[in-house]
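Re-run with default settings, no changes from the original entry. Doing this only to confirm the output is reproducible before filing.
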Amino acid sequence: MTRVASNRGSSEPVEHESSPDSDDEAGSTNVSASIHVDPSKALPTSSKARAKRRIAALEDELEMMRQGRTGKQRKTTFYVAQGRAMRRLVILYNNLEDLIAENDRRYEFHSSLESTVEQNRLQRGYIELARVLPWVHVKLGELDHEDSVDMLKKKGADAARGDDTSSLKELVAAWVNQEFRPSPLIKPNDKYSRGFTSDVCGKLLCPAEWDWDNSSVKAGIRDRTSEYIVSENSWPLLVYENYRFNKDDLEEGFLKSKLLVLAFKAIFTSPSSAREADGDGDGADILENDRRARRRSEQAKVKTCVASIINMKKVTPRAIAYVICHVRFALSSVSSWRTVDGDFDYEVFWNNIVDFFEDVPGPVTRRKVDKLLEWWTRKIFGTSHRDDLTAEVVSRMSVNAMAEQRKKLEDAIFDSD
């Protein structure tokens, strides 16, 4: 008979039988008794079971050694997954090499050089790259050429852009049909019936300062007259809340359209989260659920959203610009991704959106921009404040307060004895 000491809170010691010869006979009676003794102690297990687990672990290690390339494959997969964020969050058109070269130029010449508007854009892009993917600044020079190409082109950045173009082609058609009920409906796989030949697509693509419902405006745009040139120098109506434009306050409802919110959700948090755009988003919950799913299934492949992969918790200006360009392209009649569509230059358009956020004239516009970004973050990720739950804050909450009270009570009784 073995006697086991009780916890402070127990009134009686707990006894149980144990076999002196082998732990192979560790049965349910022993386990049951031990559970109530001290939860910090190990429960009895079978030596045969432990041996089998060790053998299985050694076999797994041997298999990894045989494969040889496993480590490199995992590293390449990581770089490709991270590279898919570059077009979405940093640069839609510029080459990564241009950003790196500009940063190197500034570092070598320090403050003695003058910079153009384009060079300033490149440097802001490099700073954003280092913020979004901080490992790039240190590791990019160490990558194999093959890994670098995969990350930036074949499987990474450019592949992600292609995937988003393909998925939004169908999704945008579905959202437009649901919102506007056009007749005929927009076909999900047909781009030729979109653009300015479609009344509903034409209205959304129309420069906000013009009235699409005016027959002369509509005819001028469709005939591509010099009086109605559709270019990147006009904000299309699709970017405005409720698709309404106030000529006396150009920022009213700017970048708050339902179509943009749905597209952002579809790309960054999942198409299933893009079912509605009203109210606060649930992106924070999606990220937390992804994290827990990966933790529970270390060996299994768990499909996670883009925001989860890159640890994105707030909406950024360049992500908004990326989404807007894709929505405009999805509404157009152009069948394949290109930089220029008629008189419309997507690269300049992307720069215009980014400059709106990053190249502000002063503190008043900076506050307005910050407020707009807060609106976007709430729409996508909701009102979660888990990151603000510091140890100090948690210590004052009732769960910890009660645990502290119980501990003090036990200490007081123990001291009195």
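The first helix runs from residue 28 to 35. The chain is about 55% helix and 0% strand.
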